[in-house]
Amino acid sequence: MELLGMTTIFLLICISCLLLIATWRNISQNGKQPPGPFALPIAGNILQLNPKNLPESFRKLSEKYGPVFTVHLGPQKIVVLYGYDVVKEALIDQADDFSGRGSLPFVKRILKSTGILTSNGEIWKQLRRFALTTLRDFGMGKRSIEERIQEEAHFLVERIRNTHEKPFNPGRFLTHAVSNIICSIVFGDRFDYEDKKFLTLINMLEENNKYQGAIQTQLYNFFPTLMDFLPGPHKNIFKNIDEIDKFILEIIAKHQETWDPGCPRDFIDAFLNKMHQEEGNGHSVFTIESLTRSTVDLFLAGTGTTSTTLRHALLILHKYPKIQEKVQKEIDHVIGRDRSPCMADRSQMPYTDAVIHEVQRFIDFLPLNAPHAVIKDTKFRNYFIPKDTMIFPLLTPLLHDSREFPNPEKFDPGHFLNENGTFKKSDFFMPFSAGKRICAGEGLARMELFIFLTSILQNFTLKPVVDHKDIDIAPLITSAANNMPRPYEVSFVPR
């Protein structure tokens, strides 16, 4: 037993020495790489990082190592960019170099790196180009999608009205409404709010949001092979995603049965047309697998982010009745009570626009941003970053920069208003990221946030069930991936 222990220690020492030699050779041959804390073999920097609050860990490391530094999540090396100047320099000034998509083990296990969000190279270019063109053809950015959102906002308002002022958590209602927009574009139709399959799907998404904050889920990015063998909430997430995949595959199968090449109804039909056009091309990226992954990507991205932002918005607005009242006065002045809000109204509603921007800034929904990667050996400032290195261009230090947003921890629509009350843009405002990998659904999300929120406040006043001062609007850091609103209930009082 003692001999076995000595052998194990000797092997670990040998492995460590080999890793150090390889690192030294890499540095000496290619130049200086970004600094960072010493990483243990296999475990990486787990001793210096809090898996449940990576943004705070990175803030502390930036104070010691500067705006560009290296960390290891397990064996995975990551270069962190902390601050507006370095993020802008990477994503905008050197956009091509940083246009790759990094993929953490947890995300790779879920999205499988073959769809729009997580693919790379020519596959990504073709899928993203096709998705943007097709979504535009089916209304994204045009009046037809605006009308769909207005129609869905009407259904949402009537559903809220039927609660008869009883306090409830509006999260599920908002998720249903937002999800129906992307469903109408991708699947060709919305779902009734009582549809059992749709309800099951939304339940799984809500469960996944809850499970993402579990320590087992965060440790998966450090030790994926080990965590695959251990029980925990991460296994529930994988199970739910598999069920969502089955749901999508069923819809694709039904589309294949009724497919008419001359009359595409939605994104799936358009993709099937593209597959048909490329039959015989053995290298085509348009396959059933990439259709499934791309559809899942669009469904998940088009449902979760905007609905969660709206949940945050209603929580914040019912804490601050004066802000809510000011938005409602602007709605009454520009839109009135009788017609549906439209995007043309936004330019005449600077205060409402500022409130929506401030909600996105304040909640910092995606603090780490989606991981990037350099597509070639890259010189960045005075450092050398090897090809395929994963990059974390953090959003938190941009959205909470005190130079640009005084008192960034305070919710203040004035952050986006000039002294004369007109709307003020900010280069630091990047909730959808920037550069080549900017969110493909940014335009859709902006439409949904404006029309859904103004429709709700046009018809209802938010009444808290507790004292205003007891409402906590600080986002819950449930995982390294996103910030969620605290659970709450609110009454919707007809105006």
TrEMBL record:
Leading EC class: oxidoreductase
Q: Where is this protein found? A: Endoplasmic reticulum membrane; Microsome membrane
Give EC number(s), comma-separated: 1.14.14.1
Q: Which GO terms describe its biological process?
A: epoxygenase P450 pathway; xenobiotic metabolic process
Catalytic reaction equation(s): an organic molecule + reduced [NADPH--hemoprotein reductase] + O2 = an alcohol + oxidized [NADPH--hemoprotein reductase] + H2O + H(+)
Q: Which InterPro entries match?
A: Cyt_P450, Cyt_P450_CS, Cyt_P450_E_grp-I, Cyt_P450_sf, Cytochrome_P450_fam2
The GO cellular component terms are: endoplasmic reticulum membrane
Q: Which UniProt keywords apply?
A: Endoplasmic reticulum, Heme, Iron, Membrane, Metal-binding, Microsome, Monooxygenase, Oxidoreductase
Under Pfam families, the record lists: p450 (PF00067)
Source domain of life is Eukaryota
Give the similarity note: Belongs to the cytochrome P450 family.
Q: What is this protein called?
A: unspecific monooxygenase
Which species expresses this protein natively?
Answer: Melopsittacus undulatus (Budgerigar)
